[in-house]
Automatic annotation (TrEMBL):
Residues 48-75 form a coiled coil. Keywords: Amino-acid biosynthesis, ATP-binding, Coiled coil, Diaminopimelate biosynthesis, Kinase, Lysine biosynthesis, Nucleotide-binding, Transferase. Its EC number is 2.7.2.4. Catalyzes the phosphorylation of the beta-carboxyl group of aspartic acid with ATP to yield 4-phospho-L-aspartate, which is involved in the branched biosynthetic pathway leading to the biosynthesis of amino acids threonine, isoleucine and methionine. Residues 388-450 form the ACT domain. It catalyses: L-aspartate + ATP = 4-phospho-L-aspartate + ADP. The gene is yclM. The lineage of its organism: Bacteria, Bacillati, Bacillota, Bacilli, Bacillales. It comes from Lysinibacillus piscis. InterPro entries: AceGlu_kinase-like_sf, ACT-like_dom_sf, ACT_Aspartokinase, ACT_dom, AKIII_YclM_N, Asp/Glu/Uridylate_kinase, Asp_kin_monofn, Asp_kinase. This is Aspartokinase. Belongs to the aspartokinase family.
Length: 450
């Protein structure tokens, strides 16, 4: 059995959904189909998920919502008409949105989640109806049937019983159309995964039914060795290991969500990234092991939006528990961190900036000064992480020097270097404004001459 996931661009219009049907029909092993909400039809379009977030925010501010509901319904209406489906499906969607807007607003995050999920939920129902209408027996299955997730305040993840519950889907005779992006807590409360989280749903389903393959359909032929929007004509990656992909998708390879790797990795289901617009292209396979390619570096990614908490105190290295107490202050603010490069008397804690507010930033700085008696404490913003990844890197000397030279030639200063203990990655912290220039310079260094 194959589980396939179709991303937002693959289900953005009637024409795209017709391609999806043709792909599913072409291989009878494709029995479980996870779908995203309709995404962008062109560069300047708005994803349905973003329209829904606008709707949820307007509802929370008690603003007029009818026009915003209509914007979402119009997207589905254009799809339904193009697929020759009965228009009544749009009335059902409008009613569903009004019901969600009337929902409990006590917890704003959960209220937004319930509205955000309407894109995937209604799209899955619509696609199941379309498949059936063209003679491909299909049924919509709700995540309520078993995709159990944890409670707040932690980020959403599937509980172990989700895999047991969803295993029954492997008995299906019809094609199952399953909405991506959300699950339900044990108490029946809807929670969404992070943005881009339909990849995670597909991976959970593939692991639950022990699929022979997880196919992730998107709008590019394969995973490239660098973001094709920044680097001209980057090298295609035919095979990549789970570890390499995990490191690359953590920092900018938005083509596959980093949290989507764990479920399939655990039981060894291979992943194939493919293009809905060119399904005969072989795509990229994500596997446990791959033959050496002759190149030490497999890919280079870059992501912005990082901040650094810089702390310095003389003799910090002799103070038992300093690091623990510092990280405890961040934990108390429910903040996770990414890297902690350190010297004898100083340490930097690098975190995603979106977790910071002016209030928690002030609290953190005050506590570090008062409780740890640090001499210098500062929060710096506007950093990017550039990550060079390759299984072959540990057998190659001089890579860090080559990378540092290429970066310095752009005029940028390296703020931080972290050689991951996994030995498949090398991370450089730099100022955000140099990100694209550095990515291009590193690509030239490691790929253009190879
Ligand atoms: N290294 C990379 N290889 C391929 N695509 C990449 C890479 N880095 C970023 N991308 C971007 O990821 C996009 C696909 O991911 P996404 O927009 O989430 O698709 P979907 O709508 O199918 O979920 C591509 O259009 C491409 O612009
Ligand atoms: N629709 C959600 C989930 C998702 O995975 O979407 P996409 O497949 O378009 O990346 C989002 O926009 O975040």
């Amino acid at each position: 059995m194959i589980v396939c996931k179709f991303g937002g661009t693959s289900v953005a219009s009637a024409e795209q959904i017709q391609k999806v049907a043709a792909i599913v029909k072409a291989n009878p092993a494709r029995k479980i189909v996870a779908v995203s909400a309709p995404g962008k039809r062109s560069g300047d379009d708005i994803k349905v998920t973003d329209l829904l977030i606008e709707l949820a925010n307007a509802a929370l501010k008690n603003e007029q919502v009818e026009e915003k509901i209509q914007n979402v319904v119009n997207r589905f209406q254009a799809i339904a008409e193009g697929l020759h489906l009965d228009n009544s499906i749009c009335d059902v969607i409008a009613e569903d949105l009004r019901e969600r807007v009337q929902g409990d607003q006590t917890n704003e995050e959960l209220f937004i989640d319930s509205i955000k999920a309407a894109g995937e939920d209604n799209n899955a129902k619509l696609i199941a109806a379309y498949f059936t209408s063209i003679g491909m027996p299909a049924r919509y299955v709700s995540p309520k049937s078993g995709l159990v997730v944890n409670d707040l305040p932690e980020r959403t993840f599937a509980l172990p019983e989700a895999y047991e519950n969803l295993a029954v889907l492997k008995e299906t005779k019809e094609i199952i159309v399953f909405p991506g992006f959300f699950g339900y807590t044990k108490a029946g409360v809807l929670r969404t995964f992070d943005r881009g989280g339909s990849d995670i749903t597909g991976s959970i389903l593939a692991a639950a039914v022990e699929a022979e393959l997880y196919e992730n359909f998107t709008d590019v032929d394969c995973v490239f060795s660098a973001n094709p929007k920044v680097v001209n004509d980057p090298v295609e990656i035919k095979e990549i290991t789970y570890r390499e992909m995990r490191e690359l998708s953590y920092a900018g390879f938005s083509v596959f969500h980093d949290e989507a790797l764990m479920p399939v990795y655990k039981i060894g289901v291979p992943v194939n990234i493919k293009n809905t617009n060119n399904p005969s292209a072989p795509g990229t396979r994500i596997v446990a092991r791959r033959p050496a390619t002759g190149r030490p570096v497999t890919g280079i990614s870059a992501d912005s939006g990082f901040s650094t908490l810089y702390v310095s105190k003389y003799l910090m290295n002799r103070e038992v528990g300093f690091g623990r107490r510092l990280l405890q202050i961040l934990e108390d603010e429910n903040i996770s961190y990414e890297h902690t490069p350190s010297g004898l008397d100083d340490i930097s804690v690098i975190m995603r900036s979106h977790q910071l507010t002016p209030e928690n930033e002030t609290r953190i700085i005050e506590r570090v000064k008062n409780e740890l008696q640090a001499e210098h404490v500062e929060m710096r913003h506007g950093f990017s992480m550039i990550v060079i990844v390759g299984e072959g890197m540990r057998h190659n000397t001089g890579l860090a020097a080559r990378a540092a030279t290429a970066i310095s030639q752009t005029g940028a200063n390296i703020e931080m270097i972290n050689q991951g203990s996994s030995e498949v990655s090398l991370v450089f912290g730099v100022l955000q404004e140099y990100e694209n220039q550095i990515l291009q310079a590193l690509y030239k260094e490691f790929f253009a001459h190879a």
